[in-house]
Amino acid sequence: MKRFHVHVHVKNLEQNIAFYSAMFEQQPARTEADYAKWMLNDPPVNFAISTRGDAPGIDHLGIQVERAEELDALKASATRADMTLLDEGPTTCCYARSDKYWLTDPQGIAWEQFHTLDSIPVFSEAKPATGKACCAAPAGATAACC
């Protein structure tokens, strides 16, 4: 199953948690000092907010998959369509360990396609090879996390 993903940067986390909890009629599945995430089943959406952005508003969109094979199929489809993608591979971001890559639409909106592998206790961990923290976004898009 695929799940639509939306990540919005907000100025005030508490006010937005209250707003979205009321709108979705449920509390977040995960809450941190700078982040909250709702895993909605109706409609199936991974909706996240954080205070880790440059400006309030839509940060990026995405497709989350349940199985590695689904991610491989999405990646193969993007490659066949000659879409430029930034492959992060295994990475940490937004309190999760994931396998992911990024695409950028013609308007410059970043799209991540990812498979969450595990939960972690920190927002992100530095990548040993580069020392860069998550998440790299394609050229022209805001570097962000899910």
Please tag this protein with its features.
single chain, 146 residues, alpha+beta, 2,3-Dihydroxybiphenyl 1,2-Dioxygenase, domain 1, 2 helices
CATH overall fold name: 2,3-Dihydroxybiphenyl 1,2-Dioxygenase, domain 1
- CA-based shape: globular
Can you give the helix content as a percent range? 10-25%
Instruction: Report the total helices.
Output: 2
Order of helices and strands: EHEEEEHEEE
Total beta strands: 8
Number of domains: 1
The N- to C-terminal Cα distance equals: 18 Å
Given this structure, which CATH class is correct?
Answer: Alpha Beta
- According to CATH, the homologous superfamily is 2,3-Dihydroxybiphenyl 1,2-Dioxygenase, domain 1
The major beta sheet can be summarized as: 8 strands, mixed
* Poorly predicted tracts of residues: 130-134, 139-144
Strand content: 35-45%
Average residue-wise pLDDT: 84
Strand arrangement across the biggest beta sheet: 2-3-4-1-5-8-7-6
Tell me the radius of gyration: 15 Å
Tell me the structural class.
alpha+beta
- The assigned CATH architecture is Roll
Helix and strand layout, with pairings?
Elements: E1 2-9, H1 13-24, E2 30-32, E3 35-41, E4 44-50, E5 57-65, H2 68-80, E6 85-93, E7 96-104, E8 110-119
Parallel strand pairs: 1-4, 5-8
Antiparallel strand pairs: 1-5, 2-3, 3-4, 6-7, 7-8
Structural commentary:
With 146 residues, the protein is α+β, with helices and mostly antiparallel strands. The protein has a single domain (2-119), classed as 2,3-Dihydroxybiphenyl 1,2-Dioxygenase, domain 1 (Roll), CATH 3.10.180. It has helices spanning 13-24, 68-80, and strands at 2-9, 30-32, 35-41, 44-50, 57-65, 85-93, 96-104, 110-119. An eight-stranded mixed beta sheet has the order 2-3-4-1-5-8-7-6, with helices on one face. A hairpin with a 5-residue loop joins strand 7 (96-104) and strand 8 (110-119).
